[in-house]
Amino acid sequence: MRDSLRLWIVCGLLGASGWVSTAQPGPGLRSALEDYIGSHQREIVGELVDLVSIPNVVSDPENTQRNASYIRGMLRDHGFRAEVLETEINPLVYGELKVPNAKRTLLFYAHYDGHPVDPRRWKQANPFTAVLRDRRLEDGGKDISGFKQLKKFHPDARLYGRSVADNKAAIVALLTAIDALKAAGVALTSNVRVIIDGEQESSSLGLLRALPRYRDQLKADLMLLLDDPVHPSGRPTVIFGARGAVSMELTTYGPKFGVHSGHFGNWVPNPGIRLARLLASMKGDDGRVLINRFYDGVEPLHEEERTMLDAVPDDHANLMKLFGIAAPERPGLTLQQALQLPTFNIRGLSSAYTGPDARTIIPDIATASLDIRLVKETPLAETTEKVLAHIRAQGFEVVESDPSEAMRARSPRIVKVVKGGGSNAYRTSPLLPESRQVVAALERLFGERPVQIRTSGATFPVATVLIQEIGSPAISLPIVNFDNGQHSDSENLRLGHLFTGILSIAAVLTM
Amino acid sequence: MRDSLRLWIVCGLLGASGWVSTAQPGPGLRSALEDYIGSHQREIVGELVDLVSIPNVVSDPENTQRNASYIRGMLRDHGFRAEVLETEINPLVYGELKVPNAKRTLLFYAHYDGHPVDPRRWKQANPFTAVLRDRRLEDGGKDISGFKQLKKFHPDARLYGRSVADNKAAIVALLTAIDALKAAGVALTSNVRVIIDGEQESSSLGLLRALPRYRDQLKADLMLLLDDPVHPSGRPTVIFGARGAVSMELTTYGPKFGVHSGHFGNWVPNPGIRLARLLASMKGDDGRVLINRFYDGVEPLHEEERTMLDAVPDDHANLMKLFGIAAPERPGLTLQQALQLPTFNIRGLSSAYTGPDARTIIPDIATASLDIRLVKETPLAETTEKVLAHIRAQGFEVVESDPSEAMRARSPRIVKVVKGGGSNAYRTSPLLPESRQVVAALERLFGERPVQIRTSGATFPVATVLIQEIGSPAISLPIVNFDNGQHSDSENLRLGHLFTGILSIAAVLTM
Asked: Is there a contact between B79 and B187 (Cβ–Cβ < 8 Å)?
C-alpha cells in the first residue's frame, strides 16, 4: 500500500460520507485532476509496478491467488467493499462502492491474468520486474535506473513488463481516478461495481460459467470495459462493439499418399487445385465474399454513424506504407468501414512442400485454415452454416474427419471441415442515451469529442456474454497505448496514456 | 571376374572371330538363352552383387573412379574394347563391340551412379552389401543367408541394395545377354556401343558437357536406354518417349508482415485468396489446363498409336483403389491417354500456418510450388512463357525477386515467379522402322507383343539431349521391376525381371 494512500484513507474516515464538490466538470475539473496526478506520479507508477510484480500466468495457481487477494486489498484500501469470488477455475475479484444519490450503477471490467511469458525472449531480467525506458525499445529506449524514486515522469517514458498494459494498468487507473476525484472534492455520480477477471487470456471460462451465480451482484446500468487500447492517434477513445470470429479448416483430398507427378500427372487428382478453386469461389478479386447471403442483415449505417466513422482519425496513408500495400482489399472502403463487415480470411495454407523441399509429387491433401470475423448481424452458427452450404453447392461432400476407403471410392470431391472455436460479435448502439452520456462526459473534460469506434476489429468474447447475461449495454473505455505489444515479449505502457486514461475514467465517474 | 567368365573368354579366344548361329530367333532362341541363364544364375547374381558393393554416390569421388575402372574391366572381360572417358565431373565408361556384317550400330545407355543413401534408414547393415529376400519386404520378405552359394533363385526373390535396380542391373543384363547369345551360338546383328553415365542422378552434367567431344565415338543408328522400369504387368516393355518437366514457384503478397486479422481484416489484402484465384484461373474442375494455348501443337493420335495405348494392360481399377480415388483427374482419359498431355501440378502450397499453429493473422505471403510436365509438342521455354503471359493477363505484375517498397506502393497485384530447372520431353515415333524392328524382335522372342508406352510420365533429360546431339532415335528398353523402390531405402530388384530383361536385350541384339 502507498503511504499517500494510507493518509487518504485516514482523511476519508475523518470526512463526511458525501464528498464535497469543489471543482466542476470541464476544464476546471481537468486541471484539478491533472494537479493530483502530477503530484502523485511516483505513487501511481509504484502501485502498478507492485501489482505487476506478482506473476499472473494462468498456469501458476499460487500466484493467481496472490493476485486476487492483493487486488481485493487494493480495492478495500480505496474504499470499496471487496471480495474474492471463486469460480471453477481462477478466482474473480469483485468490488463495490456506493455513493449517495447515484444516478446509476456502473460495472467496470478488467482482468488481472496475463499472457504466458518466455523470460528468455524478454529484454529485461524478469517480465514481472517492470523496467522503465525513456522511449520505445524500437526507438532506442534506454533503461531509467532507480525510476521508482522519481517524482515526475516524461509522458513518453514506457514501463515494460507483463501486464503493465494488458490489463493491470486499468485497475490502477480506475482506483487513481477515484482518489483524484476525492482529492478534487468532486462527487461520483454513479455507484461503482468492478469485476476483475482471472483468466481473460484463456477465454474467461471461469467467469462465464460463474455468471449465473453472481448475476445479481454484477447488475449495472452500463458496463465499462477497460481492456482495449486507445486509437493510434492517442486521443481518448470509446468503442461500442467488437467483431466476433470463427475459425475453420478445410482439407481437400488427392491420392492417399503423395504419388509421382510424372507417372500419374493428369490422371491422379491434385488436392491443391481443388482447394484453390473452392477458395476462389468464396471471395472475389474485389475482396467481396461470394458465399450466398454472407452479408445478410448488415444494414446501411445511420447517418450519425457514418459521420462517426469518418471522424476517426485513421492515418490510411501511413498504414499503407507501414504494411507495404498499394490499395485496401476492398477498394474504396476506409478502415472503419471495412471493420463494420464480416471477413473471410485465409490465415494459412499447406500442401506437401514449397521451396527447396518441394518434391515432384501429387500431394495427398491440401489444407486452408480460415478465420471469419463476424459482426452483430452475422451470428456464428448461421455464418458457419452458410459456409458449409456454399461448399456443398460447389459439388463437394462435406465430412468432419478423414474419409473412409469406401467414401474415397464413391466420392470424387470431398472436403473435410474442422470447425474451431468462435464467439459472436457485440455492439452497443452509439445512439443509445448511455452511449451519448459517455461521449459527452469525455467531450466536456477534454474539450473535444473522443474517437468513437463503432466496431473494433478484434474479438471480445466476454463482452458479448456479459451483455447477454447482465442485460445492460457495454462500452469499452480504453486506456493504454495502441503499440503496447500486448501478449508479446515487449509489452509496454506509455505513461502519458496511463495519466490520460485516469482522466477518461474520472470523466465517466462524474457524468 | 567370375570363373565362368574367364573360361568363356578363353573359349572365345580359341573360337573364330564370327559366332556360329546354332539357335534361331523365336522360341528356339528363347529356350537356348533360358538354358544359359538357368545354369548361370549364381554367376549373374554374383556379378551384380560385386558391382553393387562399390559405393556409388556422387559425393564420393574415390569410389566413383573405382566404379568406372571396374566397369571398364567388366566390359573388357566380355570382349569389348573399353575405356574410361573423362568429363568435367564424373568419368564415363565407354565400350565397343564390333561384329562382322553388322546391320547397324546400337548405342546402349546405362549409368553406374546411385541416389544418395542414408544408411540408418535401410533395413540392412549396408546399402552396398546386397541382401536377398524371398519376396518383397512389405510382403514379409525374409533374408536368405548365404544366397551367393545358391545355384538357382526363385524369380520372386528380390535383391535389396543401392543401385541393384537403378541402374547396375542393366550393365550386368547387357553383358550377360552377349554371353548367352555366344553360348547359344547366335550372332549379334549389330555393332554394340555402350556408354555408362557417372552422374545420371544429378542431371548427367558431365556427360552432357562432354558430348560434343565424344559425339563421333557415340554415333549410332539407334540408341537403347536401359534406365526405366518395365510396365507394372511385368511384361516386356518398350518406351518411345518421356515427358519433360519444368518447376516454378509463385508467391503472392499481402502485408509486409503478418497483421492481426481482426484489426485489419477486409482492409489489408490477403495473399492466400490472391494465390487461390490465380491458381483457379489456371486449371478447371475437369482437370483441363486453362492457360491460353497450353495444349497448342498436341495433335490427335495416329490410329496405330491409339491402338497401342489401348493395348497397354494398365489395371485402372486397381490403381484407383490403391490411390483411394473415385475418378481420374480428367474424367474419361485412360492413364496412357493422360500421359500424352502436358500437366499442371500444384506440388506444394504454403502460407503462414495451418493446424494447431494457425494464428489469426493476414499472412505476408502465400506460395505455390508447381511442376509442369511437358510433351514433345510443348517445349519448356514456350510453355514457361505461356504461364507468365497468363499470370500477367490476370492483372498481376510479375517479378523475379521480392518486390521493393516502391513497387509495393505502386502495384496492388504482384506475383513473384521463381523458375526452377527443367528439361524438354523426347519421343521417338513408334511408327519409325527402328521402332517397329525392336517391337518385332521382342514379339518374335516372347511370342507376344511387348507393352508399348508412347510417352512415359517421368522425365529422362539425358535422352532428349542424346537424341539432339547424336542425331539418332532412342528407345527405352527397360529391365527392372516397376516397384523397385528406386532412390528410396528399399531399392530392390526382382530376379525374375533381371532374367527376363536379359532375354529382351538379346532379342534386340539379334534383330
From this structure: no
* Residue in chain B nearest A332 by alpha carbon: B267
C-beta atoms of B458 and A260 within 8 A: yes
Contacts of A443 (CB under 8 A, 6+ apart): A449, A450
Q: How far is A23 from chain B (nearest CA, A)?
A: 39
Taking residues A334-362, what's their average pLDDT? 96
For residue B131, with 0-12 CB atoms within 10 Å meaning exposed, 13-18 middle and 19 or more buried, which class applies? Answer: buried
Closest residue of A to B342, CA-based? Answer: A266
List, for residues A446-505, the tens digit of each pLDDT value: 999 999 999 998 899 899 999 999 999 999 999 999 999 988 999 999 999 999 999 999
CA distance A299 to A376: 11
Contact state of A360 with B245 under an 8 Å Cβ cutoff: yes
Using CA atoms, how far apart are residues A249 and B323, in angstroms rounded to an integer?
23
pLDDT by residue (tens digit) across A154-190?
999 999 999 999 999 999 999 999 999 999 999 999 9
Residues of chain B with pLDDT under 70: 1-26
Residue B372: its pLDDT value, please? Answer: 98
B455 close to B339: Cβ distance less than 8 angstroms: yes
DSSP state of A357: G
Q: Which residues on A lie below 8 Å from B263 (Cβ)?
A: 456-458
CA B256 to chain centroid, in Å, comes to: 42
A203–B contact, CB cutoff 8 A: no
Tens-digit pLDDT profile for residues B31-74: 999 999 999 999 999 999 999 999 999 889 999 999 999 999 99
Cβ separation of A324 and B409 shorter than 8 Å? yes
DSSP B357: G
Question: Whole-prediction pTM value?
Answer: 0.89
B344-375 pLDDT, tens digit per residue, is 999 999 999 999 999 999 999 999 999 999 99
Residue A90 CA to residue A85 CA, distance in Å, equals 9
Q: What is the Cα–Cα distance from A421 to A403, expressed in whole angstroms? A: 23
Do B369 and A354 make contact, defined as CB atoms within 8 angstroms?
yes
Point out the residue among A261, A285, A459 whose CB comes nearest to the CB of B343. Answer: A261
Partner-chain contact B255 A411, CB within 8 Å: no
- pLDDT of the residue at B202: 82
Identify whether the C-beta of residue A92 lies closer than 8 Å to the C-beta of residue A182. Answer: no
Whole-number pLDDT of residue B13? 36
Domains in chain A (CATH in brackets) are 3-242+425-509 (3.40.630.10), 244-295+338-423 (3.30.70.360)
Whole-angstrom CA distances from B178 to B15, B147, B171, B476 are 15, 25, 11, 19
Asked whether the predicted pLDDT for residue A359 surpasses 60, the reply is yes
The single-letter DSSP state of residue B145 is T
Residue A6 confidence class, pLDDT cut points 50, 70, 90: very low
Closest CA to A52 of A139, A153, A124: A124
CB contact under 8 A, B267 and A333: yes
Cα distance between residue B332 and residue A386, in whole Å = 33
B373 and A263: CB-CB below 8 Å? no
Who's near B216: CB < 8 A, 6+ residues apart?
none
A411 class by beta-carbon count within 10 Å (0-12 exposed, 13-18 middle, 19+ buried) = middle
> Does B245 contact A at CB distance below 8 Å?
yes
